[in-house]
């Protein structure tokens, strides 16, 4: 039920959004048969109710289905040390107003799909259904968010479910490394906590904690009802008036307001590291990051282009030595790693820009890290127009091509309105990315990467990873 990819913001950005080519070349949307087309230049409409609850839609008149969901500006970042894990716990329990059997039967009878996930900054509940079933879908979402019973038996049952989920997550090395990366980069701060929370919290969270979280965070001013597909904007506005107009516009008591404000304070990036050596593992798994940019930052897209220049690589890819990324060629030729993934993970006011390395060549970890940071240094002073254009083309394709479907469009609208207050349309994204030059990339690298403190998270056979200061010194090495 919960989506827990810690590079979620990266993937939202780098896998993100829209199949536009057919429309750009002038073909009629009708050539796509029964698929749900998304038009280039579709208008996103928004309306805000008197209580601050926002409705945003992108209407496609020919679409037979719609995705409708509620995006909430609250995730694990809105918790305290004591209540860490509450947002995710609540996501599990929110489906318990109707009995599970009633809920599943109701959704199945309309041929719909209901899902939810929690991230560090958002909680999302959404459903996809036929246009005629949108009113029933909004009714269900409203019921989930406003009328959850939080019964003691359900709470105890979900404890075991979440503990098992935590065990599964702990087996996924990428998840573990990125959890530790956040914990060290934003240590002692809300953004550094995990989404599921520590085991002791999962075992001790009470109904009062869940109820307080709802009263503090599930307020109209922090919610957006999104519709994408065949649902007209005015219909969704009318449904919102019917089902969400009684939501409080803000937390009722002053202490809750103070807590909410504290969680919104910009976190401090701390140059630091965490290492978990385990020689029984066959690989070294290492993430290195500098402080990145937030969703609202003017450098947001420049950071993504810079990340795309570094690229991703996996030795299982048959064409890996011939990719445009200079680092991929060097790593492939010298057998330095199994794979690497550059990332630019953004949050509302900060982010992490870096790389995730996996290698079974544990005696050459120093070389792998050195040449990776050498590539970062090169970005500050020697970026070509050709590689910038390649990175821009890849970024525009990844951002735009996955907007092929109502769920992807709804996700794009919800995330953008919650984090930035407006939706940047696909054509605007293409225009902004297209205007970035190699000089912009080098300027970004000089300001954000060159001689900056780093956060390191390393797990596995990491004896060959040099000490923090040696790695940090490579951040200011002159390129030659």
From TrEMBL:
What Gene Ontology cellular-component terms does the record carry?
A: mitochondrial matrix
Where's the Peptidase M16 N-terminal domain?
55-199
Q: Which Gene3D superfamilies match?
A: Metalloenzyme, LuxS/M16 peptidase-like
Record domain Peptidase M16 C-terminal: where: 204-395
Which cofactor does the UniProt annotation name? Zn(2+)
Q: Which UniProt keywords apply?
A: Hydrolase, Metal-binding, Metalloprotease, Mitochondrion, Protease, Transit peptide, Zinc
Write out the annotated subcellular location.
Answer: Mitochondrion
Give EC number(s), comma-separated: 3.4.24.64
Q: Name one GO molecular function term.
A: metalloendopeptidase activity
- Give the matching Pfam families: Peptidase_M16, Peptidase_M16_C
Please tell me where this protein is predominantly located: mitochondrion
Q: Which InterPro entries match?
A: Metalloenz_LuxS/M16 (IPR011249), MPP/UQCRC_Complex (IPR050361), Pept_M16_N (IPR011765), Peptidase_M16_C (IPR007863)
Q: Could you provide one GO biological process annotation from this protein's UniProt record?
A: protein processing involved in protein targeting to mitochondrion
Domain of life, per UniProt, equals Eukaryota
For the keyword Hydrolase, the answer is: yes
Q: Does the record bear Mitochondrion in its keywords?
A: yes
Catalytic activity field: Release of N-terminal transit peptides from precursor proteins imported into the mitochondrion, typically with Arg in position P2
Family affiliation: Belongs to the peptidase M16 family.
Sum up the protein's function in the record's words: Catalytic subunit of the essential mitochondrial processing protease (MPP), which cleaves the mitochondrial sequence off newly imported precursors proteins. Preferentially, cleaves after an arginine at position P2.
Tell me the protein's name. Answer: mitochondrial processing peptidase
Q: What is the lineage of its organism?
A: Eukaryota, Fungi, Dikarya, Ascomycota, Pezizomycotina
């Amino acid at each position: 039920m919960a989506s827990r990819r810690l590079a979620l913001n990266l993937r939202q950005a780098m896998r993100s959004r829209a199949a536009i080519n057919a429309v750009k070349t002038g073909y009629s949307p009708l050539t796509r048969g029964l698929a749900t087309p998304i038009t280039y230049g579709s208008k996103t409409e928004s309306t805000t109710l008197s209580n601050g609850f926002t409705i945003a839609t992108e209407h496609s008149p020919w679409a037979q289905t719609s995705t409708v969901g509620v995006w909430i500006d609250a995730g694990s970042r809105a918790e305290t040390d004591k209540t860490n894990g509450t947002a995710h716990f609540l996501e599990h329990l929110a489906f318990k107003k109707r009995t599970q059997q009633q809920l599943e039967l109701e959704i199945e009878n309309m041929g719909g799909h209901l899902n939810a996930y929690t991230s560090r900054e958002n909680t999302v509940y959404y459903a996809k259904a036929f246009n005629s079933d949108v009113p029933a879908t909004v009714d269900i979402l409203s019921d989930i968010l406003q009328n959850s019973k939080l019964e003691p038996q359900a709470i105890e049952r979900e404890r075991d479910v979440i503990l098992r989920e935590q065990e599964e997550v702990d087996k996924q090395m990428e998840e573990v490394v990125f959890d530790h990366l956040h914990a060290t980069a934003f240590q002692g701060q809300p953004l550094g906590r995990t989404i599921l929370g520590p085991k002791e919290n999962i075992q001790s969270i009470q109904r009062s904690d869940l109820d307080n979280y709802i009263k503090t965070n599930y307020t109209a001013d922090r919610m957006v009802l999104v519709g994408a597909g065949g649902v007209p904007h005015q219909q969704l506005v009318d449904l919102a008036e019917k089902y969400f107009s009684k939501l409080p516009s803000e937390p009722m008591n002053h202490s809750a307001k103070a807590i909410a404000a504290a969680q919104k304070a910009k976190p401090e990036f701390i140059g630091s590291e965490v290492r978990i050596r385990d020689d029984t593992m066959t690989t070294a798994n290492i993430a290195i990051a500098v402080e990145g940019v937030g969703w609202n930052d003017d450098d947001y897209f420049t950071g993504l282009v810079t990340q795309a220049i570094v690229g991703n690589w996996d030795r299982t890819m048959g064409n890996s030595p011939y990719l445009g990324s200079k680092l991929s060629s060097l790593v492939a030729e010298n057998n330095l790693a199994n794979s690497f993934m550059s990332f630019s993970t953004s949050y509302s006011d900060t982010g992490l820009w870096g790389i995730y390395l996996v290698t079974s060549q544990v005696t050459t970890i120093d070389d792998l890290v050195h040449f990776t940071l050498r590539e970062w240094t090169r970005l500050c002073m020697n970026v070509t127009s050709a590689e910038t254009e390649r990175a821009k083309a890849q970024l525009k394709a990844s951002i735009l091509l996955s907007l092929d479907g109502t769920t992807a469009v709804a996700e794009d609208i919800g995330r953008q309105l919650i984090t930035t207050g407006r939706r940047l349309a696909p054509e605007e994204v293409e225009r902004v990315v297209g205007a970035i030059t190699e000089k912009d990339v080098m300027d970004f690298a000089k300001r954000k990467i060159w001689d900056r403190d780093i956060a390191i998270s390393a797990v596995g056979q990491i004896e060959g990873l040099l000490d923090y200061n040696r790695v940090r010194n490579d951040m200011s090495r002159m390129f030659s």
